[in-house]
Amino acid sequence: MSEFRHPVFESFVTTRQSDPSGMHTDFVGARTSQEFGGSAPSGYVESMPPVDEDYLEWIDILETAAYARDRFVMVELGAGYGRWGVRGALAARHAGIKDIFIGFAEAEPMHVKWLKEHATCNGLQPHEFRLYEAAVSDKDGSVDFYVAMPDGSEGNDPASWYGQAMAKDYEVVSETIAHGAPSKSQNSDSGKAGLDAQSTETYAGHNVKTFASGWKAVEVPQMAATKLLRDFDVIDLLDMDVQGEEVKIVQGAIKDLNKRVKRLHIGTHSREIEFELYQFLTAKGWKCLRAYPCESRTSTPYGDVQFVDGMQSWINPQLVPVEDFAVESIHEPGSLQSKAANASLVMRGKMTRLASKVKRIFGRKAA
């Protein structure tokens, strides 16, 4: 089967200009500071997203914006500096939607700072977004959150590393600062070796704990997904990149997902997680549009893609008519086979109908 572009991109072709300050400008016009990382040269303007693992996320963002009506609501969990939430907002504006609200959840302190800057830089007004400064999982509380890898690790800075996660249960504190006095972690037995000298290290205003493994963390709030979701009546798209918390969040919040969320985009971080998510959401009646495994080079309708994180895209039939959405490719966890829709004429036919519908939404004639 020959490669092709997803038709939704045709409806979001906008005029983009190089930013005089050197910011990178992406497909929907979102401007991103070079301080936040990436390899794009100063002033780079993206005419079309490349076919890589992000391309599938672009499809979910643009389709959701195209199908929204008078209001667009998106929530991004594990938002980093907020790139996908901002892209969603700008895509919705391009689709003519004025009532926009984006929820961002991020725990890494430097990324929180950048997220505020990024949202403001791209025109989001204070009433158009809310930032939850927390790590989202299945319960409330507080948690140690990695902010640095062991010394000498490549890419050990916030602009290069966006894979921060909750500290593992096995970690033992080597150094900490707690108002001038060392303290033992929850995982250390009384009198157990591993607590060495006091540390005066801070990170973005937070006291740093250095584990015996060499990893470093700060303590941050933890928020149950159910609590966050109940701030919203309806969410058009829930975008998740939560570094291993996927199953806990989905299983713990399934009642609210069923009630409030139209569409899910989930970044996946192990084959076990992919299997559990696929089995669970299928059993709950959700429709999978595409699923690709992590750490793989996999064929897609748009070309071969090298996946670091995997991805799964889901539609909630309780809230969204699904008949116009094409099931593109589903690499079922535990199987090396992809469903025949990946190569079938049925998918091409659905894609053609989808293109016509998207164009009608934007008031354009079908090709």
Topology of helices and strands:
Blueprint: E1 24-25, E2 31-32, H1 53-67, E3 71-77, H2 83-94, E4 99-105, H3 109-121, E5 129-132, E6 135-137, E7 141-148, E8 173-175, E9 202-203, E10 206-207, E11 209-211, E12 216-224, H4 225-229, E13 237-240, H5 246-252, H6 254-260, E14 263-268, H7 271-283, E15 287-292, E16 296-300, E17 303-307, E18 310-315, E19 329-330, H8 345-361
Parallel strand pairs: 3-4, 3-13, 4-5, 6-12, 13-14, 15-19
Antiparallel strand pairs: 1-2, 7-12, 8-11, 9-10, 11-12, 14-18, 15-18, 16-17
Helix pairs in contact: 1-2, 5-7
Care to describe what's here?
The structure is a single chain. The protein contains 8 helices and 19 strands. The chain is of the alpha/beta class and 367 residues long. It has a domain of 227 residues: Vaccinia Virus protein VP39 (Rossmann fold). The strands form 5 sheets. It has an 8-stranded mixed β-sheet, sandwiched between helices. Strands 6, 7, 8, 11 and 12 form a 5-stranded mixed β-sheet that branches. The chain has a two-stranded antiparallel ribbon with strand order 1-2. β4, α3 and β5 form a beta-alpha-beta unit. About 9% of the residues have low confidence.
Offer a quick outline of the entry.
The protein is an alpha/beta fold and 367 residues long. The protein has helices at 53-67, 83-94, 109-121, 225-229, 246-252, 254-260, 271-283, 345-361, and strands at 24-25, 31-32, 71-77, 99-105, 129-132, 135-137, 141-148, 173-175, 202-203, 206-207, 209-211, 216-224, 237-240, 263-268, 287-292, 296-300, 303-307, 310-315, 329-330. It has a domain at 51-138 and 223-361: Rossmann fold.
